[in-house]
Design a protein that fits this description.
The protein is an alpha/beta fold. The protein has a domain at about 1-75 and about 190-258: Rossmann fold (3-Layer(aba) Sandwich). It has eight helices and nine strands. It has helices at about 45-55, 90-95, 100, 105-120, 135-150, 165-185, 195-200, 235-255; strands spanning about 1-15, 20-30, 35-40, 60-65, 75-80, 155-160, 185-190, 205, 215-220. Helix 4 (about 105-120) packs across helix 5 (about 135-150) and helix 7 (about 195-200) crosses helix 8 (about 235-255).
Length: about 260
């Protein structure tokens, strides 16, 4: 399966009714089992693009389509948002099976699937807990398990760790790579954090400030797992510096614009 983003543009109307172009001429693909990361300055349209890929927004121009789908079915897309959008009145277990309930999956199968992904994200023993009883990292794990439970063809993640403290964020990045290694899901991930992008990505797509256009696509030629080891440190830092230099001016201008 391959996800193709073909010449996508998006235009909105602002509060005064003036048309504002957020994205323009976006074209790339997400290959089978590939982890693609979007980076760029604030307001460049990263989240808008992710929502278009996920079918939550329609492009003004262009299209998104899935190639090589097995069987005549609509693609499954799992989404993990920055805001940890759990239902506070539902337990961990009931949050994880929500998508399965919506799809009409049999209760006994729900239990098998939920057990697998709750174990995968390290929440054994917390099945009956409510979101308010969990830490931020644990709540985000629930969100990831819920997205995985529908067994998506594509996983979308919109700055899922940005609200976490630095230590928890590092742990969650490591755990996400472990989960990816087990599931091999095609993934599109949005982040402001260049270090995070280099740590996670197979390819990084760099967007300009609004209207967001692709500045460059950078292939990360490092081992997928353990690329933070000392032997890769110099190359890792080279990637970080290279990407920062590509977006630095736009990032500074975006700050001036507020």
């Amino acid at each position: 399966m391959r996800v193709v983003i073909e010449n996508v543009a998006k235009t909105f109307k602002d509060a005064k009714g003036k048309e504002v172009t957020t994205l323009e001429g976006i074209q790339f693909s997400i290959e089978e089992e590939e982890f693609v990361v979007l980076v760029g300055p604030s307001g460049c349209g990263k989240s808008t693009l992710l929502n278009i890929v996920g079918g939550l927004l329609s492009p003004t121009e262009g299209r998104v389509f899935f190639e090589g789908m097995k069987g005549k079915r609509e693609p499954n897309v799992g989404i993990v948002f920055q805001e940890i959008a759990l239902f506070p009145w539902r337990t961990v277990y009931k949050n994880v099976v929500f998508g399965l309930e919506e799809k009409g999956i049999d209760t006994s199968e729900q239990q098998i699937i939920a057990k697998k992904y709750i174990e995968m994200v390290g929440l054994n023993g917390f099945e009956s807990a409510y979101p308010k009883q969990l830490s931020g990292g644990m709540r985000q794990r629930v969100g990831i398990a819920r997205a995985l439970a529908i067994q998506p063809d594509l996983l979308l993640m919109d700055e899922p760790f940005s609200a976490l403290d630095a230590q928890t964020r590092t742990i969650m990045q490591e755990e996400l790579l472990d989960i990816w290694n087990q599931t091999r899901l095609s993934t599109l991930y949005v982040t402001h954090n260049i270090h995070e992008a280099v740590y996670l990505a197979d390819r990084i797509i760099i967007l300009s400030r609004r209207p967001g256009r692709i500045v460059k696509i950078v292939n990360i030629d490092l081992p997928k797992i353990s690329r933070d080891r000392e032997q890769y440190r110099a190359r890792f830092d080279e990637y970080v510096d290279h990407i920062w230099q590509l977006i630095r001016h736009d990032a500074q201008e975006a700050i001036k614009e507020g």
